Amino acid sequence: MKTTTFNQLIQSTQYEEAISTFLEEYNQIKKAATLSSFRRWMNTFANEGVLKEYLKVIDTAIMGKLATVLVKTNFKHLKTPMMTIWYCEELVSEHKLIEAEQSLKELLKLELTDEEEEKLFFVLADTLMNMQRFAEAKTYMDKCAEKTKAPMNTRWGYYYLQKGDWDRAIEFLEQGKLDKRDGVFAYSLLIQHYGIYGQYKKAHSLLEEGLTLHPNYPKLLVEKVRLFYQLKQWPQMRIAIAAINQLTPYNDYKGLFEDYMAESYYYEQDLSKLTRFLAEHPHLSKQSSFKEFSGTMNLPVKMLTYKPVVQKYNFCVPASLEMLLSQFNHFIHQDVIADSIFSVSGTKLSKAIEYLEEQGYACQFFYGDVDCFSSLIDMQVGVILNVDYPMSSHVQVLVGYDDNLRVLHVQDPNFREYHQIHYADLKKEYGNNQVLALAIVPSADRTKFNSLDRQQHEVVSKMLSLAELEDDSLTSVDEQFVNKNLDQLLVAAYTLRYIPKLVSQEILEKAISTVSQQLANNEYSRLIIAHAYCQSKQLAQALLYIEKEFSKRNKSTHWFLKGRIYYEQNEYVLAIEAFKEALQYEPEDHMIWSYLALSFSYLGDNETALYHSKVSLDINEEDTFALVNYGVILHDSNAFEDARAIFHQLLKTNKQDAYFWYERARCDHELGRSHFAMKGFQVAIFLERDVPFPYRELANIYEHIDEDEKRAEKVLLDGLIYTKNANVLLNELGDLYERAQRYEEARTYLLRAIDSNSSDVFPWLSLGSVLKSEGKYVELFEFMKERERDFETNSEFLVNGGQLLWDTAIFVEDKTAYFELALDFMEKGILHASYHLDDCIEMYVEAIEDTAFYRRGIAFLEERCTSSTTENSFYYICYIGCLYKGNGLFQKAKQFFEQALTIKKDPVPYYQLGEIALKFEDYKEAETYYQKVLTLDPSHEQALLDLASIASILEDRASERNYLLKAFYSNPFGVKVEDLVGVIDHKVDLEKLLDFLNGLMRKHDKVFILDSIAYVYGKLGDLEKEEEYLNEALLTSPHQPQLLYHRAKLWMKQGNNKQAKAALLLLIEEHVDDRDLYKLLVEVAGNTRSVLKLESYYNKLKLEKAERSLAFMFTAAAYEKVASQEGNSPEQLSELKGFFKRLTNFTKITAHAGVIIGFYETAIKLDRKNVRAVMWLADFYVQADLSSDAVKVLEKAYSHNANVDIAYRLAALYVEEMANVKLSKQYRYLTKAKELLEFCLTEHEDPEYMNLLAYVLFEREDLLEAEVMYHRCLLIEPTIDKGYYNLARLYLQMEKFLDAEKASKAAIELEPNNEDNYNQLGLIFHRQGQTDQALAAINKAIELNPDDLFCLYNRACFLVALGRMREAAQQLEHVFALDDDGYFIELAEADKEMLPLKRTGYFPMSV
């Protein structure tokens, strides 16, 4: 193998020598003529370097088929990146573009060499170009340009040729001719381009120039043959063919050249040579244009003179018209024609006719046959042939006929050369529309149409006009026309293709009958019938027509229709599978990509939906359907500003489109621009009064934003009139009446909705909600059980119904039974969820995560995980982790989140892992996880806020500010501006924030922006400006609580404390649970030294006792916070994301504490059921180092309210305080704790209660009872905190060493990084005399935590037991050196295990 020679020869343009050298070797293989010898030769390529050189010479020799075999054979064992790229090139040539793209994008994840990256980027760009995805392709072209050292002119020329920007392409290719590497390809592309466009002189000149620089380059020689063929220079062509075949006898063009040779003899009228040639090549008489050759050359032949043109993408009509007009010496470029007739994704023939008539031509439709076509060609009539496919159409130009060959000559605008249609095949090729054609002549020659049937033209024209109606309705005249002409195939077929939704069922069935009979149930007929049934929502019928297999040419349509049917059936998973199959065959169809995007969107996977929607727009950025879908998906992804921009742009050219007004208004509503949203919905209603959704949205604004229930009611009632009682409005009105507590009216409208559509789940659910609101709980449960039988597989009903039952269960006596019924509903709903599975699981998890049912949830989700797809398993695993995390089992939760990340790198598990790290105050690890979240989702608001919180704790004020600003700029509504300006100290940052807010004035709720600007001016110290902007906001919304709060705050800053206090008290009366109000009120009261008067103020407010209790509780918490700040710097006072600092600096009771305690005690007296007040007061005492008072508070509260939470907290406090009380009191505490925990267990079988009770029993030395309780606990929750650890301790004390060892190993399996578990295992081994194993265990513990003195001390003990006295002494010295309070010195002095060390004299007494 002389591969170096190949490379050198090709680089020096010695192509003939390179090919000759290769053929010396290859001829031997061909000579052997056995499959085994060929296989042996293919297996000689040891590495990709050798194969690369062979592929280069084989490509030069235009032997692509051999290259394909070599690549595919070697790809099986040479799995290198470059080999994959070559394989993908072959896939591209076979139009397997999706597979190629996926494989190439996998390579992007690998570390590659520069050469591999350059090749990868270009091949990926080429793959995308073939799918018409030029925007994405350009990104990889740019990457390729960055990597390569060679000029990119030829590659850019190729890119712009593919894109249809021919002028720019030619500029690059002209420069590319000089490129050393790609110059010859530039020549080849230029020659092809000029040859395709009929500029033969220019092409020939370039050919000669190219062959001078690149002598005998085969691809240029092929272009030479083609030029001679197009110019009909037959002798020169045959010489050129002979030259190529001599140079490279196994080239891929031999079959084409044989066709050319036969044609040359035919057109030279050399019958003897033609006859001889056909005899030598018998396949030509079976497959080529000569298959019906009559053997004579005397019959009529006619060929029109025209300029051949190859179309730009989707320009088949403009390109065909350019060719046809050239027959009349009228030359108009396809781009110019397209400017007048092309629209978005194609050209309507009606528009093309209008254009032609403007240009002075007459047009007439007709159904053609061979005689008709021949006659028209003889009269120089231009003829456009219409080719109908199931979902699209195409046009070609009839350019001649030949009775000797019995063929019509047809020029397809996709190809550079015309092709032949045999007379016998005419119906087969064009019969789907009765061989529909359009005759075109200059207006002065209109008489040439006399032989045509004018009635055919009228029928076709009318049918095409109806096809353009889209979703409009048919008039009675139109319907009569269709019905009258349904016996005509074209009318029937176009009824099915274009207007199936607009005709009656009777007409539809007649059309189906005509098409089935006249097309003998062929693939085209079956597909358009399925399409018609799909459009008319007869989905089961539609599926029947596409059950059978289809040929490759129709597979894309088959799968697309299947996807549409599944999509309409809400079977989105099946729809996605079908659309993906369709893309395998037609990846350049933007409609398939757009439907695929919608399907993912309905499944809740908006990230994937957005990607596919962008692909759709990359292919066709002007298609309204694709743009609308993109806008809707952006909206559902909460990208409201971007979505609004899409619909705003669409409205510029479609101001009468109600749907665009509606969607833009939805975006305005989400952006807080209620006024604009209101206007948008009103315009949508005005334009289309019979569409229900704008009424619903407008009513929502009136009810929830303006708080105008009557106006909302009127809108819905008006909507019912105009929409003829639309179900969605009946249901909405029912819900409105329920919220207004007008239950009978609610029931009336909901029952009307059910009568209208009993299969709609939402009126049924709303009826259930009405029963709940009426307090008819037993009736509700019975009602839902009955409905379950009707909707037993409906996920929406089951999940939402389960949620309703769950929310109601708290009001009934037998709560557990009803909770379990609710969970039954939700679990069945999850089982039957075909989309939005993550939302269903989230509802389920949110319901149970803080309850004893969370274990049931984990068991259910784990079971589902084992029988689900990988994608669904991701959701199940994540939510299992959430349940463990929500119940404090953080290590277990962490394992599940890490497992989820092995399936998919997603923000959710990374964020949850960050929260776990934050919980354990591992700020570095938390920050790492949050940064990974931001890598995947740069605008993840909560991750930014958490990072700000971490920065605040670490006193990194600059980072805190930056993260908060990023969060605010990402979502201005997600961060309180009051908090934001609190951490901004630099004037320049505040001014930048002002600019940003002013820029939002037109895009967001004006009131919100004005209020925010006011806060910024407040921070800048400009109180006048703050007041000015705040007052402007109040003019618009004088009762908005946030504004009234801000005004009170401003009054305080201005010294108007009395006004501020009065305003805050009024706000508390309306919003008793708003904690910010109390914080400010305490500050105001502090300024006026009137904190103690707050009690009398509260007593004057119109508050119920329970509400007043909340007011005192929140005041105590707010005052506690203010008091705690006395010892803290401002930098330590961040309260973001729950970092609420309680009393950390109080070392003794103070006057402040007396006030705080007083407020808490008042809150408790006012409402004994206010458990939070009890807990917060107990916490206050504990943090103030007054645990005995905390015990008293809890004991007293429990005596008034036997609440489980109080009981558990008190029991836990008894256990915590054991070390701080006398021995006699310890046992009393344990006994009380035991009683309390037994009470808790009578209420709930919670393993947390069991775990603590087992510990209490253990401490009481009720060892057998403790053992039973630990087993009971661990059976329910094996991962309970310290469960197996304490069980191991228990067994160790009971001297059940094997059981202790087993329990300890179980603890290690659950928490492999906890040193206490290994320390415990070491002690168990030590007690059994297995000291070597004990030492190994303790060494592992020390490895995990080298500073744990207990582990270090135990290691010394184990070393003593092993007789390793020197090591033991050194270990003990290390312990003593770190023992600040002398605990371990005293322990060692009294420890009997140290006696051997003392006897040997190694005991470190001097330390």
From TrEMBL:
Looking up Pfam families in the UniProt record yields:
Peptidase_C39_2, TPR_1, TPR_2, TPR_8
Q: Which SMART domains match?
A: TPR
Q: Does the keyword Repeat apply?
A: yes
Enumerate the UniProt keywords alphabetically.
Repeat, TPR repeat
Q: Which InterPro entries match?
A: Peptidase_C39-like (IPR039564), TPR-like_helical_dom_sf (IPR011990), TPR_2 (IPR013105), TPR_rpt (IPR019734), Ycf3 (IPR050498)
**Domain of life according to the entry:** Bacteria
User: Where is each Peptidase C39-like domain found?
Assistant: 306-414
**Positions of TPR repeats:** 556-589, 727-760, 907-940, 1281-1314, 1315-1348
PANTHER family in the record, alphabetically?
Answer: TETRATRICOPEPTIDE REPEAT PROTEIN 6 (PTHR44858), UDP-N-ACETYLGLUCOSAMINE--PEPTIDE N-ACETYLGLUCOSAMINYLTRANSFERASE SPINDLY-RELATED (PTHR44858:SF1)
What's the protein here called? Answer: Peptidase C39-like domain-containing protein
Q: Which organism is it from?
A: Metabacillus litoralis
